[in-house]
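User: Fold this; tokens only.

Assistant: Input:
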Amino acid sequence: LNDPYTFLEEVESEESLSFARSANEACLKALGDPTTSGSTTYERVLAVLESDDRIAHVVKRGKNDNGEDLMFNYWKDGNNPKGLWRKTTMESYKTSDPKWETVLDLDELGKKEDVSWVWKGSRPLPRARDPLSNNGIRVTRALLSLSRGGADATHLREFDLLSNEFVSKEDGGFILPEAKTRASYKSRDVLLVGSDFGPGTLTDSGYPRTVREWVRGTEIEDAKVVFEGEKTDVSVSAYIDDQRHHDGPIYEVRSRALTFYTSKYWARTVKYEDLLAPNDPLREGVEEPGDFVEVDVQMDANIDFVGKWMIISLRSDWEPTPGGKQYKKGSLLYVDAETILTEGSKNAQYHILFEPTERSAYETYSITKNYLILNVIENVKSKHLFFKFDKENDGKLVYVGGDNEAQIRACYAGSVDPYESDEFWFTTSGYTQPSTLFLADVSKVGGKTNEGEIEKELDEENEEYILEKLKSLPPQYDAEGLTVTQCTAISKDGTEIPYFLVSKNDTVLDGNTPTLLYGYGGFEISLGPKYIATSGISWLERGGAYVEANIRGGGEFGPSWHQAALKENRNKSYEDFIAVAEHLISTNICKPSTLAARGGSNGGLLMGNMYTMRPDLFGAIHCAVPLLDMKRYHKLLAGASWMAEYGDPDTSDWEDFLYKYSPYHNINPTVEKYPPMLVTTSTRDDRVHPAHARKMVKKLWDMGDGKDWPVYYYENIEGGHGGAADSKQSAFMTSLAYDFMWNTLCKGKST
């Protein structure tokens, strides 16, 4: 296909940046600059993003010299737009005004080095494998990932947590330039690293194809390649899973991600000495570890190790022994790791931790010292189940209790320190309920009655495992009179599609309520109840209705819900979203002129398809950091890694189905009126290429000259795939989009 707009694929060419700058100028001239337009949205959103009222979530990183637990947090506010990495003690954290000590000031670092650094996380040296940790008490080092302007590609730099300084190369520090690097400590002086080491070291998707073992004090170029995959793989990785604190061995694991959803794993058990540098005196006389064994599970399964167990999460039905028991897709199993590694899957005994129903799925699990906490969603409502490692029963997991009813709320349970305790962070929030953080203890969960039910009736504020309420976010907007309703639309093929509607309880059903419909529908990612202050300020407070659609392609009902909309069935996602839109209209919440749609990334592709498939159904569309050109998506940045989701345009997939949902190729010149659309992206987005948005907009402008096709485009010159690099940019992009949608829909109201 001849594409006259490929010149816009040059990310930072003068022609591309000139297009972006002039488009930005035209956008603000047409829609108004949210920072000066007189709307209060920008100021209020910024105040929320920078508010000191936000909960400072922490992770434990060992103890200080006084034996006090150290809690680390990354914090951004008005005075620190790029952020502070800081620490406090657990006792101080529990107070209303913790005393923080700055570990790293990213704004200061950016000024000093003249780089707009964006924090991308830290990876600590595990204290169990650090000879300088005072017998596993303190964490002394960490690998920091810092990004220029918010891109996925990062600079790797080692940091000393005792001196709060970077470790220089002269002192043996691990430092790597910008790349999509994956690195973790094998031991204090050895890293397992995948990165861009030159030609042939990256996959077609732009991720590491090789893993090197890098010894401190040597050059990365001399580091030995210990594992490699194929160029067509998505990525490869290698890591150490040290399970000694759960009475298990140390596992060394390698994996090749063949596609986004399939992997091959190899594993072996090793001794601590095997992790050290080859010339380390402790390795003398130590027998070499055994060979790696390919893990005998389905390629679309995920594995994890806990103590002596391997946990297997299934994406498709599995029959380990031909003619034997079949385990359902979406199940969570556990099995003796040594047995499956030495004797294969046919000879292993499997235990079912969770088996899904048609309307339930497990989301995540967390491990404490003696328990496993399972977060389950039932009809897009959340609940927790608790299991104990029963040492008197071969360490098997025994159900000890859980929440009676799934609730319309977001719940997160994360272990405080699986080395030492059964305490966990427990966070809850809802569409209209601000986040609350509790300290909880899973060992407080009651026993079972004869019926197997929990003795104590539980509710949101009375879970028996809660020790104390630590922090709560004050209301960030006026939610008085708002109600949350779970509704159902019927898709084209008869499937029931749930959605959540947040609206005033006295909403007049006359079709005049400005309604915002949000969707994603891909990559097994679930949408569900959580507190989004920006939507509350920018939409609900104004009297609008906010809707989230749980369409197929997401993970709301496990792998089946996701797989129902893969590749040639992608139309199911779009039909589901259309069904929800039509249901909102048929129930008189809104009408097409008062209905806006919004989505980003894969949700941006959804928006592009709503624009081209049903221009009659929406009054405004915000299409953020989108995929839109499905003919060339696999050639742009990380696009090749998504072919398991969408299909391969270089095969018959293109003619068979892909072209049907490539918005860039489905603009209809005979359509007289397309709904007003705002397209936003970021120059520094190195996951979804900004060319998708640029090319679509340029093509629409050229084809729509003289037609009623209002399209506005704003490209943030920084920001990465999130679209913004700091709070001011984030507030700007948020308010630009919400004000555009609100003002456009208000023109569509009946007088």
